[in-house]
């Protein structure tokens, strides 16, 4: 099969029955990406400025602009969207423009059926390129969040630890810092924010620094008090050890989930419901035996906090990720919907699929 034939087959797949084939603007406002994906992803945006000073970025993905457009028709309206076209991201190597295809199912009334449809779509796309035995890595955000909610620690640390899930280096640094707490730096402990702000102002002025540039004294005072509270809230050593051991679990999916269950039981934590859900999702990913050799990686997650439930990556013989996807029920709420909306989808890296087909 030629590259042209494969592309036509892929276009037919993303515009199949019941799927709205969509194109989104190439120039879009970058603010939602900074708000939802953070500075790390933001550094990969290709930015430009209009004649009126308005800032735009070249489209770095399809999921977010599709979700924004979907909100206009009503967050709870079930819809399936397919796409195929160029996206643009800063890269250390390779071109900054490359094609992406995918399927997004928003507000589907049956979440299990929606996941089945996305998995079948991914399998069909791999078939087009002759990829029969992809390596599949699976993670469960729900499972980690359930463990985190029940672990023994001050509540102030839970969102900060959650924010680093999927960022192995940042998580490791945080756990190391928590394992080696230090006494808070000397300062105006016990003072109200206004008094601390006055103290900061005096320090700034004494050292010839501006009160109007960068962060103001009150913001610095608030951050100071937050830091004092954090430093005073110690996480037990046993909890840090539990998190490290959990995040290190990876391997054959069934064995890895059994290891999670054993670890939780040993620490008096009940994870029955999220473990059952993870096992059910794995069964769906196996797709009746067509996708075997699944690896469950307890520390795996996209670096976006609106993802929920199961996430997955499928890689080829060369080790590059060809398909990535999962559930992201929080996205539409983060964009303005009144509540979470069941959402699931996957993206295909077309250049990598072509490269794999040529092996």
Summed up, what is this model?
The chain is of the alpha+beta class. The protein contains 14 helices and 12 strands.
Description:
The chain has 359 residues and is of the alpha+beta class. Helix content is 45%, strand content 18%. It is built from 14 helices and twelve strands. Strands 1-5-6-12-11-10-7-9-8 form a nine-stranded mixed β-sheet, with helices on both faces. A hairpin with an 8-residue loop joins strand 5 (79-88) and strand 6. Helix 1 runs antiparallel to helix 4, helix 8 (193-206) packs across helix 9 (217-232) and helix 11 (253-266) runs antiparallel to helix 12. The longest helix has 18 residues, at 111-128. It is globular. The two termini are 13 Å apart.
Notable characteristics:
globular; 3-stranded antiparallel β-sheet; 14 helices; 359 residues; 9-stranded mixed β-sheet; alpha+beta; single chain
Give the helix/strand layout.
Layout (H helix, E strand, L loop, with lengths): L2 H12 L5 E2 L5 E2 L2 H12 L4 E3 L5 E4 L4 H10 L6 E10 L8 E10 L4 H18 L6 E6 H10 L7 H6 L4 H12 L13 H14 L10 H16 L4 H11 L2 E3 H14 L5 H15 L7 E4 L10 E8 L5 E7 L3 H4 L8 E7 H8 L2
Parallel strand pairs: 1-5, 7-9
Antiparallel strand pairs: 2-4, 3-4, 5-6, 6-12, 7-10, 8-9, 10-11, 11-12
Please state the overall shape, judged from the principal axes of the Cα atoms.
Answer: globular
**Total number of helical segments?**
14
What is the ordering of alpha helices and beta strands?
Answer: HEEHEEHEEHEHHHHHHEHHEEEHEH
Structural class: alpha+beta
Mean pLDDT: 86
**Termini, distance in Å?**
13 Å
Provide the β-strand percentage band. Answer: 15-25%
Portion in helices: 40-55%
Spatial order of the strands forming the largest sheet:
1-5-6-12-11-10-7-9-8
Report the biggest beta sheet as strand number plus sense, adding barrel if it closes: 9 strands, mixed
Uncertain stretches of 5 or more adjacent residues: 205-213
What is the CA-atom radius of gyration, in angstroms? 23 Å
Number of strands: 12
């Amino acid at each position: 099969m030629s590259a042209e034939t494969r592309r036509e087959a892929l276009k037919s797949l993303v515009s199949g029955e019941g799927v709205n084939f969509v194109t989104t603007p190439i120039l879009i406002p970058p603010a939602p990406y900074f708000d939802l994906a953070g500075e790390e992803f933001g550094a990969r945006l290709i930015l430009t400025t209009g004649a009126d000073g308005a800032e735009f970025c070249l489209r770095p993905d399809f999921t977010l602009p599709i979700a924004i457009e979907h909100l206009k028709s009503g967050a709870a309206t079930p819809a399936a969207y397919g796409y195929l076209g160029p996206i643009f991201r800063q890269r250390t190597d390779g071109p900054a423009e490359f094609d992406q295809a995918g399927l997004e199912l928003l507000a589907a009334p049956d979440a299990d059926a929606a996941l089945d449809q996305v998995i079948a779509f991914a399998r069909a796309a791999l078939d087009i390129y002759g990829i029969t035995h992809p390596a599949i890595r699976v993670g469960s955000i729900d499972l980690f969040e359930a463990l985190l909610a029940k672990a023994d620690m001050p509540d102030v640390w839970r969102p900060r630890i959650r924010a680093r899930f999927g960022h192995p280096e940042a998580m490791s640094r945080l756990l190391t810092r928590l394992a080696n707490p230090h006494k808070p730096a000397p300062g105006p402990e016990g003072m109200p924010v206004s008094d601390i702000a006055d103290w900061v102002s005096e320090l700034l002025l004494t050292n010839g620094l501006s009160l109007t540039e960068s962060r103001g004294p009150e913001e610095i005072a608030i951050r100071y008090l937050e830091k004092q509270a954090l430093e005073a809230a110690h996480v037990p050593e046993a909890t840090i050890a539990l998190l490290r051991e959990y995040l290190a679990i990876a391997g054959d999916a069934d064995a890895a989930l059994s290891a999670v269950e054993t670890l939780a039981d040993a620490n008096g934590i009940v994870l029955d419901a999220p473990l059952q859900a993870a096992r059910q999702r794995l069964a769906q990913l196996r797709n009746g035996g067509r996708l075997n050799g699944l690896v469950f990686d307890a520390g795996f997650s996209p670096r976006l906090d609106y993802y929920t439930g199961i996430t997955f990556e499928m890689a080829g013989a060369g080790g590059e990720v060809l398909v990535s996807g999962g559930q992201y029920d929080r996205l539409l709420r983060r964009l303005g919907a009144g509540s979470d909306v069941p959402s699931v989808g996957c993206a295909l890296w077309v250049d990598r699929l072509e490269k794999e087909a040529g092996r």
